[in-house]
Amino acid sequence: MADRIDRLLSRFQAAVERYEMIKAGDHIAVGLSGGKDSIALLVMLQRLRRFYRFPFKVTAITLDPCFGGEKNDYSPVTSLCEELEIPHIIKRTRLGEIVFEERKESNPCSLCARMRRGALHKAAQVAGCNVVALGHHKDDAAQTLLMNMFAGGTIGCFSPVTELTRRELRLIRPMIFIEEKDIASAVRCCGLPVVKSRCPVDGKTHRNEVRRLIAVLSEQYGEINERIIGAMQKGGISGW
Prior knowledge:
By secondary structure, the chain is an alpha/beta fold. It has one domain (4-239): Rossmann fold (3-Layer(aba) Sandwich). It has nine helices and six strands; from the N terminus they run H-E-H-E-H-E-H-H-E-H-E-E-H-H-H. Helix 1 (4-18) crosses helix 2. 32% of the residues are buried.
């Protein structure tokens, strides 16, 4: 009988095929933070490999920010990778120290995200990967559009597929048709390991504020996330 992860695979595959995310011979680096989203992404990619029309390889890459100068324990995630027969690379970084101690940024999330992306792209290249898979889901897409509108006055979002020509990498987001609540439920019901974030501002970000706003609006107007995604697709915004 199919488990909760398998029940999400049709939406996962639909995104992959609609935006032609995976090509024959791709070597995909999964940005594996240890959170529920990246864990679900890893497992679904591995399951997709069993039957997908194109052969591809998967490698998991974890960047440890070393918040507070301490290494995080990713052993539960490494054990899962071993079970899935996926190589797991852990790179210790100074992200936490640079963002919170040296730079003391008023908006730490923006700087941390940029530095993390750069480090992940470099690590993927070193590992011989030509694709980087990220764990953004449908809720992330809707929130990002509103955040860009409110904070920057622009109408835009991350793209389902992004070509980084200078690095010869392709970024893909296969979970953009899946709701966060369904991912959380699947990970919990399947007993998959999750490594809690040690970020000092976890749960206190602008994204959390927008998440709460969407929840309030959804009570009055229905599925706001679904409508935002539909609007982006109809308008062809950011490659949707």
